[in-house]
Amino acid sequence: MSASPLVTTRRVPLLVPVTGLSVWDWRESYAVFLAFVIPILLLSTVPVLLPFFAIGLIVVGLGLRVRRIVRWWTLLRFADPVVVDAVEQTVASRGTVRLAHATGWRVHRGWFTGEIHDNTITYTVGGAPRTLVVRGLPYTSGVVLAHPTRPDALCVSAFPFDLRLSDDSRWSVSVPPSSWLGAAATAVLYSALVFVVWWTL
To answer: What is the value of pTM for the model shown?
Structure first.
């Protein structure tokens, strides 16, 4: 059982929002692709709609990123590592996907072929049991960060950066080198959308 939580606050490194704004998200790029391909006939017939369509994609994309950053920021500012009480695993699907898997604080990111599991993790905060579902490889010992007063938690594998909590309760954040390539691709994607707006207005 985990100890009763004490509400503490920690300084969140600036690298957290920077990474959140720049991290590559293949689902986002796929959504942008579909958003342009599906209504292409309408956009070609009524080209005046194109810049507003691109503006809408930019606003939605940035809005989702900001929402994700706020969640990360809140957890890293207030959350504490918790003790996992139990784990229930079920096979969700099978395929070849890129996954992040945590062992303690260490996170390995790479391609995996095989069964994808839904890991239902049970932990306790303030005497109340809570659950967190983590999809990926079978859960082993990844650190789970849980908010002391809100029903919100994440495994460290859910962050696109590596986390460490030092002895003086300060966060250390490092970004894998491959993430900078993704950041460049993200910049290209949004630059293309901005160019569409500029070119068509």
So the answer is: 0.84
